[in-house]
Amino acid sequence: MTGQSLQITARGPRAAAEAAAAAIDADPALEASAYSILEEDEARAVWRIDAYPTTDAEADALLTLLAGRPALRVASAPLADADWLALALSGLPPVRAGRFFLYGAHDRGRVPASALGLRIEAGAAFGTGHHGTTLGCLVAFDALLKARRFDRVLDVGTGTGVLAIAAARTGARRVVGTDIDAVSVRIARENGALNRARAGFVRADGLAHRRVAAAAPYDLVFANILARPLVRLAPDIRRALAPGGLAILSGLLRSQERQVRAAYLARGFRLVRRYHRDAWATLVLARR
Q1: SS3 state at 14
Q2: Which of 54, 24, 92, 51 has the alpha carbon at shortest distance from 253?
Q3: In the predicted model, what is the mean pLDDT of residues 65-73?
Q4: CA distances (Å), 135 to each of 12, 38, 142, 285, in order?
């Protein structure tokens, strides 16, 4: 990308922001775009999208898409040279999700006696527990653990490895985490070592990797990715699960929930429970 890195911001009503986010997800040219959506001002009902393009073409496409929605106020500004990742992570507070307490190096020593502490250093990977999708997966997993244990667990799109590590730390005997990004796999392995978690992490696109197949069938599959890949992977996730096995799916907006749910119900799953946090949805489904 020529020049400085760019941040594109769009503000407006929730419906307009969610529709724009869905349009970004649906555009093949923007499939890898990094963006966030959140409620900026509850009193004024203002939602905000922040997008961080990595190429000029991606920046142009995002600006065109967002500017084409009259309800949104769109602005762009260059990001000053700074280690934004380090600055952001240093200010993140710990997160409590059921029995799990997620913290970074700056919060060592603050783990409550009643919690299972997971030290997660994000680096350039996704998954500190602050995002509604990761938090939704952990809350769903905590609720499931009150009724049963999971011996074999797969974490698709593992990011920092937090979900795989949570499974390993709660008794899973065989845990595999995958990601298409080599940096995320490295960070997940480092976090696994920090937490003394018996989990293996591999770089893989989909579920065909030999290490993924070797550990199947799974009792539980996490897939915290995006709506379109979730739909595409429905047949593979079904094959990877043992009968009666569970899938915890997230990375989807509430507006995408029906599409993802339909793809899994059509393949013999039943909906066990769903969780909503901000604009995000988490689904728990069981293979019949």
Answers
A1: helix
A2: 24
A3: 95
A4: 25, 14, 11, 17
Cβ–Cβ < 8 Å for 156, 225: yes
pLDDT, residue 60, reads: 93
Residue 211 carries which DSSP code?
H
Question: What is the domain extent for residue 169?
Answer: 130-287
Indicate left, alpha or beta for 228 from its phi (over 0: left) and psi (-120 to 50: alpha). alpha
* H helix runs in the chain, sequence order: 14-26, 56-67, 84-90, 132-145, 162-169, 182-194, 210-215, 227-232, 234-240, 257-265
Residue 64 lies in a domain: yes
pLDDT tens figures, 121-131: 765 445 555 57
Q: How many residues does the chain have?
A: 288
Measured at the alpha carbon of residue 187, what is the angle toward residues 245 and 34, in degrees to the nearest 5? 85
Residue 122: inside a domain: no
187 is a domain residue: yes
CB-CB contact of 72 with 46 (8 Å): no
Q: Which of 32, 30, 31, 40 is closest to 9 using CA atoms?
A: 40
Whether residue 113 lies inside any domain: the answer is: no
Same domain, 254 and 159: yes
**Once rounded to an integer, what is the mean pLDDT over residues 85-95?**
55
Specify the higher pLDDT residue, 119 or 84: 119
Q: How far apart are CA 101 and CA 220, in angstroms?
A: 21
pLDDT at 81 over 60: no
What's the whole-number mean pLDDT along residues 20-31?
85
What pLDDT does residue 4 have? Answer: 60
Average pLDDT over residues 184-212: 94
pTM of the model: 0.71
* Same domain? 134 vs 198: yes
Contact yes or no for 280/254 (Cβ under 8 A): yes
